[in-house]
Design goal:
about 210 residues; alpha+beta; Glutaredoxin; 9 helices; 4 strands
């Protein structure tokens, strides 16, 4: 099995975490957004990462990949068994993949990608505007959704990593969730980061990207 994408992509991290939970060995193949080979569109029509190659099956889109993995390799499950909870998990995964990532990506892009990969100066005003004006509403919502203890649906699910993976990137860019204002979400982030499969994935990222991460 092959997982194609960039090491620090929140979407790639989500899939890598699910693969690790399920004990599935995979070969990472690095493809960086904006530097994709000409034929990448043949396996990812939207030109997005990650892409999973499993024998004759080639799948783009992290959510589609995670659902495929959970159906093909059902144990351990990474989505709730209850229909209503599974629907809620899918929405929370989507929220993490879209709105949360939209905001949390800004500190990472400005403070890590621009100086580290593009040799550009960060836009500090953009970071301040997003962190102080846009992100708080998203964190208010997540504060109302995450549990005070444990994970969203008891056992670790795809939704758990989806709601934390963007925040991990923001942390690399110097952002820290205010535990005084959002204590439930801040605690939730730390629990997800301490979950052994996530620890393993983050360690692999550190080893692969050590020079960029410092």
């Amino acid at each position: 099995m092959k997982l194609i994408g960039a090491h620090l992509s929140p979407y790639v991290r989500k899939v890598a975490t699910i693969l690790t939970i399920k004990g599935i060995s995979y070969e990472p193949e690095v493809v960086i957004p904006g530097m994709m080979p000409d034929d990448f569109i043949e396996i990812s029509p939207l030109l997005k990462i990650p892409v999973l190659v499993d024998g004759e099956v080639t799948l783009p889109d992290s959510s589609v990949i995670c659902e495929y993995l959970n159906e093909k390799y059902p144990e351990p499950a990474t989505m709730p068994s209850d229909v209503a909870e599974r629907a809620r998990a899918r929405f929370l995964e989507e929220y993490g993949d879209t709105r949360l990532l939209e905001y949390m990506s800004v500190p990472f892009i400005e403070n890590v990608v621009k100086p580290g990969l593009r040799n550009e100066q960060p836009d500090e005003d953009r970071v301040r505007r997003v962190v102080h004006e846009m992100l708080p509403g998203a964190l208010d919502y997540l504060e109302s959704q995450v549990p005070a203890q444990g994970f969203l649906f008891g056992d670790f699910s795809t939704a758990d990593i989806a709601l934390v993976s963007p925040t991990i990137n923001a942390g690399l860019g110097g952002y820290t969730v205010d535990a005084g204002r959002w204590p439930r979400y801040a605690g939730f982030v730390e629990r997800v980061k301490a979950f052994p499969p996530v620890v393993a994935v983050l360690q692999a990222e550190q080893e692969a990207m050590g020079s960029l991460l410092g």
